[in-house]
Every structure is written in C-alpha cells, then in structure tokens.
Design goal:
alpha/beta, Rossmann fold, 2 domains, 5-stranded parallel sheet, 5 strands
Length: 201
C-alpha cells in the first residue's frame, strides 16, 4: 500500500487513526529535533514560508525527516573529492544529515531567503567542510560540483527551467539527487542523457 492509500484507508480516516497520525508525527518531530541539537546545536524543524512564490517560484523552508533522508542516501558512496550542493537548502537539514553521515568531501548549500541562510550559517560554522550562502540558485555555476541535491526547491515551472539550466550548463557527468514526488519526477523519467541509478517510492 502506498503512502496516499495508507492515509486514506478506512482506519486512518477514523478518530483513532487521525490521533495516531498526529501523535506519531509529533514523536517523529521530537526525534528530529534531538538529532538537530546533537548535530547543529539548534532546531531546524520550524516551517518558514517562501520569500518569492510568484516570480522565482521558490518553495518554503520545510525540513525533510531524518528517517527519509536515511533512505535517500542508503547505499550511496562518497569520496574526499566530491563537492555536494543542496539547492534551496533552507535551514540545512540535508546538510546536517550529510555531516551525520561523515561526508568526506566538501558540502555547500544555497538558499534564496537571506534570513534562513543566515540561520543555517550560524550552525554550519561548526564544520570546516560546510559552506552556506544566500543567493539565487539560477545564477550559480554548477560545474564546480559533483553532486547536486534538489529537495523540491521550486514549483513546477521553475523546477523544469532549473533542470534545463543544469542540462545546458554542466559540462561533466554529475550525480543529481531528486527528492521529489512522482508528479515532479515525471520530468526526468526517460530523459535522454540521464541515467536512473536509484528510485525509492
């Protein structure tokens, strides 16, 4: 049973099911906060709305769950020459996960919202291999990086435009990690020049 059908199952639509979802969500958030404090010294859980949803079509800052990131990165190997960038990094949960996993190379994050970027920078100073900067992701040269992480930083139209930018600008093979739903994933399915290495549903 997939996630959507699970949420709409007869049990999950009952009062008991709704209570279970609420409590389990609160427990997961608490566990994530414990990891945040251990890695970053502060919480990364609070949602922050987008600073430009209309023109730049940026999504808000919502931290991914650590357990889902464990699944995303499971089985992946990295080396000291890797340069990993999280596009639309928000408060930096994905970068925190990479630090937890002892990523051997250099980590970078770019965030459109300057206040959120500053928040991420405040804890990133703990790590010598981590740099976070505020800026427009479309203005960056991605030829510097070997791994590009996209955790749905844009709405649909801009997401497609950004994929086109990567395809047109990058001159060497890269690993692109897309943490998106199946709807957004359709834009890279069977895309010429793109090889699917791993897919988790």
């Amino acid at each position: 049973m997939d996630k959507k059908n699970y949420r709409n199952s007869w049990y999950m639509t009952t009062k008991a099911g709704k209570l279970y979802r609420k409590i389990s969500g609160q427990i997961t958030t608490a566990c994530d906060m414990v990891k945040d404090f251990k890695i970053c010294g502060k919480s990364l859980t609070k949602y922050v709305a987008s600073v430009d949803r209309e023109v730049k079509q940026a999504t808000g800052s919502e931290s991914a769950r650590y357990w889902t990131l464990d699944e995303v990165f499971k089985g992946m190997t990295f080396n000291k020459d890797d340069k990993f960038i999280d596009v639309g990094c928000g408060k930096g949960r994905i970068l925190a996960e990479m630090e937890r996993l002892k990523f051997p190379g250099q980590l970078y994050g770019i965030e459109l919202n300057p206040k959120i970027a500053e928040y991420a920078q405040s804890w990133a100073k703990r790590y010598d291999n981590l740099t976070i900067f505020a800026g427009d992701a479309f203005k960056l040269d991605y030829n510097e990086y070997s791994i590009i992480m996209l955790c749905r930083p844009f709405l649909e139209e801009m997401f497609v435009n950004f994929l086109d930018k990567l395809e047109n600008d990058i001159k060497h093979p890269v690993t692109i990690i897309l943490y998106v739903d199946n709807y957004m994933a359709k834009y890279v399915k069977d895309k010429p020049g793109w090889d699917l290495i791993k897919k988790d549903c």
